[in-house]
Amino acid sequence: MTSQWPHPHRKAYKSRIGGNAQPSVVMLSGHHRDRGSTTLELAIFAPALIVALLLAIAAGRIATTHAAVEAAARDAARQASIARDPATARGNATASARAALARQGLTCPAHVHVDTFQFARPVGQPGTVTAEVTCTIRLGDVAASGVPPTTITARFSSPIDPFRGRQP
Q1: Residue 98 confidence (pLDDT) above 80
Q2: Cα gap 82→77, rounded to integer Å
Q3: How far from each other are the two terminal CA atoms of the chain, in whole angstroms?
C-alpha cells in the first residue's frame, strides 16, 4: 500500500535533512486564517436580522389593525343604517365601532365620523349612511426599528331602508 502523503490539496513542511521525511503535524490548510470570521459575520448580520424581524412584526400588526378597523367601520355603518334618526345613528355607530375594536384587542382611541345627511330624504327614496373609523396605533414595542405611529382609516356605506320610517 502506497502512502498518498502529502495530500494534493494540502501543503506540508518537509524536513531539511532528508527530503523524503514524513510531514510534520503543522499544515497550512487555511483553518487558522479563518478563525474569528464567524463571530464577525454574526456581529454584522445579527442587528440587520433583528431589525428585519421587528419590521415584519410591525407590518403584521398594521395589517391586522387595518382589517379590524375595516370591520369596525362596516359594523358602525350597519348599526347607523337601522336607526330612525341621525343622533341615534351616530351613537349606535360609535358604540358599535368601539366594541368591534375592543373585540379585536385594540386599545387605540377610535374616532368615528358618521355621515347621516341622507336621513332627511323622504320615506320611499333610497339613501345611505357612511361611517368612517380612524385608529392610530403606536408600535412602542417595536419602535427600536424606527416604525412611527400609524393612522389607519376605513370607510363603509350601508343603505338606509327606503320604506322604514325615519326622522331628519
Answers
A1: yes
A2: 9
A3: 106
Instruction: Identify the helix (H) or strand (E) that includes residue 43.
Output: helix 37-81
Hunting for cell 395589517 — which residue is that? Answer: 63
- What's the Cα-to-Cα distance from 78 to each of 21, 50, 54, 106, 108, rounded to whole Å? 93, 42, 36, 21, 22
Cα 22 to its chain centre, rounded Å, is: 63
pTM of the model: 0.69
pLDDT band at 147 (very low <50, low <70, confident <90, very high): low
Task: Tell me which residue has cell 393612522.
Answer: 151
Identify the weakest region by mean pLDDT among 18-22, 86-90, 164-168. 18-22
CB 76, CB 97: distance < 8 Å: yes
- 39-95 pLDDT, tens per residue? 878 888 888 888 888 888 888 888 999 999 999 999 999 999 998 889 999 999 999
Strand partners, 156: 131
For residue 78, the surrounding DSSP H or E stretch is helix 37-81
- Count of Cβ atoms closer than 10 Å to residue 71 Cβ: 18
Return the exposure string of 107-142: e unless at least 16 CB atoms fall within 10 Å of the residue's CB, then b. Answer: ebebebbbbbebbeeeeeeebbbbbbbbbebebeeb
